[in-house]
Amino acid sequence: MMDSGGFPYYVLLPLVVFGPLFAWILYTLGIGELFRTRKDGDVTRLQIEETERLNRRRLYAKGGGTEVETEKTGRRSISALLGQSVAYLAFIIFVGALSVWPSYRPIAPGLALIKLSFSHPGQRKVACQKRSRKELAKLAANMRTALSCPRERWPVRIDLRLDGKPLYKGSASPAGLSSDGASAFYQTFPIPVGRHRLTVRMSDDGDTEKFAYTHDKIIDLSGAQIVVVGFNTNKGLFVK
Amino acid sequence: MVPMCGSLEDNLIRRVLQNRLSDVEALFDRAFGPSWNPFLQLGTLAFFFFWIAAVSGIYLFIFFETSAVGAYQSIEHMTHAQWYYSGIIRSLHRYSSDAMVVTAVLHLGREFILDRYRGVRWFSWFTGVPVLWFLYMSGIGGYWLVWDKLAQYVAVASMEWLDWLGIFGEPVAANFLTRGSLDDRFFTLLVFLHIFVPLVLLFLMWVHILRIGRPKVNPKRGLAIGSLSALVILSVFFPALSQGEADLGVVPTDLGLDWFFLFPYPLYDKWGAGALWAITVGVSLLLLAMPWLPRARPPKPAQVYLEKCNGCARCYEDCPYGAVSMRPRTDGLPFEQEAYVNSDLCTRCGICVGACPVSPPFRREEQLVTGIDLPDFPLAQLRTDTAAAIADLNKKTVQSLPRLIAFGCDHGLSTDLLSNDEMVGVRLPCIGMLPPSFIDYAVSAEGIDGVIMSGCRDCNCFHRFGINWTQQRIAAKRDPYLRRRVPRERLLTFWGALGDEKKFQATVEEFRTDLKNMAQNSNKDSE
């Protein structure tokens, strides 16, 4: 940001440099029409022609009477200009108002948000086994790895409790056609502000009863605050 | 109320909508005049607003800093330190985008009400749907770049919405989890997208008008000046402002939502991602399928009769939809070219028939054949209708009244107005179908005192150029000319629709009085 003692004239530089450029681009990209003369038969001319015929008719009819007043320009009477002003004003108010109003609150007052979000691969369904010499000999030369590791993994199971009551219980399947990818979670839970006890448990080894990881934390939530429940290989489960 | 008539679908809801639209357009006609009436220029206004957004966006891009911290700060600097220029440009960028949504949606609604999306018009309607998608993608993407609280809300909700599809390996919304989780390169990607998506939008806008002959992409001068001035006034007095720097640790509250672009987001909060996807896909599919729900069954397209076609190319020049093209002669007649009709583009308006110089009704051939004709309403039928109308007129006209014949189009005034005790009417699909020789025929051969030609309102011709071409042919400025021997003072053109009945009757009455006076003066001269 720039400091200024008096008027910082250098800030006019963009105006000088880009002003003409802006005008040129605007002109070239379509607004040139504003400055061109009309070419083919538009309505104003058609109206004039019709009025001219009317004039001739009147001259014939009255044997040389006065010409009827011609509306040579569009609508530029005071009432028409007033009408246009009202229409433009309505347009300004409509666009200006609906671009920010009415305001919207994505989360109700008195609520905070818990986000459960992490990605973690479950344990392999079948543990890696060392291949015997016979088994290795049967394989092609480029496939002879010492360990045989079937790719399929267990789904990851999560149990989230707030103040001892279940908040979320679910599991995520491993990604990938061979079910060998990570299991990913992304869930959001609006909860009342205040002090809560948050307990999160995770199982990644196919055990349907016990949980391999557990984390328990007292949290003080203020309005609209976001608390993230995640998992990190080093830290394990965490709440922050 | 006099109902809209003719070929428009006989559907009560649509007719009511057409009547109301006609009222609104008449109101705007009174204030702006037909050529500046914004309701008749919605498509061109959308183009105009796009260019304003594009040019202002190029300027903003130059000073925008593509980093997590710098994005917000650079825009704040432009908005406050240079409010008198960059700030106004930023506001123009925002408001022109909003105005483009307004005009594009009104344009879509108007074409639907007027039933101009089925039959050969399916292409413009169909390609207009992806235009809307990319318009929304462009606008929503722009809101991310500001990286204020609104951007945070829009970004997180958009990603959660996309994650519902399950097409990403890991939830992309997880990228917006905690403070500091975004890196600078993310904003480089955003800027790239915010340039690339509008370019695709521009390409689609070009495709959208590809099948339209002589497409208009610039609004009339007065309307353009007025619209731009309105946006500048709005930008000066009500500048677009950021809503506080994004903070991923807190859910944004009390957001000033841009309801033109962001109205789906509260729906997402309320109903969830699945419901919003269902609505988005459902509405899109419905819009895409509308040209065939039900499929329009229009009359047969124009047909070229080579034995009468001399390859003059007037039909090619006048076709408002580019349906007529010229190709080398195929029948051995000593002309270089012949007309060819692409039935996929022909709207059966008959303007090509009016342009054909081989259409004079004077010929005494039993079957009047012209170079290009409408099989379902051939020129011979028009001659028969005209002759019958004149015969009818001869029967019913009081001797002292001028004898009037009115040619009217299917999309203008009601049939009832054109035919009454003192006047006979002949209808055509478009007034542009009327060959000028028919006017000559009525006046010179049949001794009709006055000929009225009635079509849609100025600048609002259902078939785009019907009234323009008619007027130019009468003024001997467009082929085929109306012959000089036809006294122009015996002609009246009236361009009007529903709501203009009284004006029409008054104009006809005035015309009748003039003709009567002319006859009296002529009698005096001869005495």
List the helices and strands and how they pair.
The complex is a heterodimer of chains A (240) and B (527).
Chain A: H1 13-28, H2 43-62, H3 78-98, E1 111-120, E2 129-130, H4 133-138, E3 147-148, E4 156-162, E5 165-172, E6 183-192, E7 194-203, E8 213-221, E9 226-232, E10 236-239
Parallel strand pairs in A: 1-9
Antiparallel strand pairs in A: 1-6, 2-3, 4-5, 4-7, 7-8, 9-10
Chain B: H1 12-32, H2 42-63, H3 70-81, H4 83-113, H5 122-145, H6 149-163, H7 184-208, H8 221-237, H9 259-262, H10 264-271, H11 273-289, E1 303-304, H12 314-318, E2 324-328, E3 337-341, H13 351-355, E4 372-373, H14 379-396, E5 404-409, H15 415-418, E6 423-428, H16 436-445, E7 450-455, H17 466-474, E8 491-495, H18 501-526
Parallel strand pairs in B: 5-6, 5-7, 7-8
Antiparallel strand pairs in B: 1-4, 2-3
Description of the structure:
The complex is a heterodimer of chains A (240) and B (527). Chain A is of the alpha+beta class. Chain A has two domains: 43-98, no CATH class; 111-239, Immunoglobulin-like (Sandwich). In chain A, 26% of the residues lie in helices and 29% in strands. Chain A has helices at residues 13-28, 43-62, 78-98, 133-138, and strands spanning 111-120, 129-130, 147-148, 156-162, 165-172, 183-192, 194-203, 213-221, 226-232, 236-239. In chain A, the strands form three sheets. Chain A has a four-stranded mixed β-sheet, with no helix packed on it. With 527 residues, chain B is an alpha/beta fold. Chain B folds into two domains: 43-243 and 263-289, Cytochrome Bc1 Complex, Chain C; 303-526, no CATH class. Chain B contains 18 helices and eight strands. In chain B, the strands form three sheets. Chain B has a four-stranded parallel β-sheet, sandwiched between helices. A two-stranded antiparallel ribbon of chain B has the order 1-4. In chain B, strands 2-3 form a two-stranded antiparallel ribbon. In chain B, strand 7, helix 17 and strand 8 form a beta-alpha-beta unit. Chain B is elongated, with a radius of gyration of 29 Å. The two termini of chain B are 48 Å apart. In chain B, 46% of the residues are buried.
